[in-house]
Amino acid sequence: MQNTTPRLFLIAAGLSLLTALVAPRKNLPALALQLHDTYYVVPQGHLITLVALFFSLTAGLYYLIPKLTGKLPGDVVGMLHFSLTIAAMALIFFAMWGLSLDEIRRHDKILRPAAYLFLAGCVFIGAQFLFVVNMIVTLFRRHAA
Fold first, then answer.
1. Is the pTM here over 0.70, yes or no?
2. Using CA of residue 80, residue 132, residue 52, residue 124, what is the dihedral sign?
C-alpha cells in the first residue's frame, strides 16, 4: 500500500506557489490605485503563501509519521482531510475576494461574505480535527505498516 496523502499535499503546495507566480501584479500603477486598501491583497499575497506553507508542513507530517512509528496513517481519512482542506481554502479565498468586491458595491446580500468566512473556518478546523484523529489512531494501532 502506498502512502499517497503526502503527494496530494505536495502537489497542492506546488500549485499554490504556481498561482502566486501567475497572479496579477499589484505593483502596476493602474492596479495599485484600484486595489489599494482592499481585501484583494490579503487572499492574493498572504493566503497563497500560507496555504503553500501549510500544505508543505502537512505533507511532511504525513511522510514522517510512517518513518518514525512504522505505521501508515489511514489513507482514506487522509484523502478526506485533503479534500476538506482544499474546499475550506477555496471557500476562504473566494469569501475574501467577495469581501473585496463588497467594498465596491455596498449593498446587502442574502449571505454576506463574512458568513462564508465563518463557514470556511469551521470546515477547515473540522478537517484539521480529522488529521489529529488520524494521527492518534495511527499511533495507537497495533500492527505495523
1. yes
2. positive
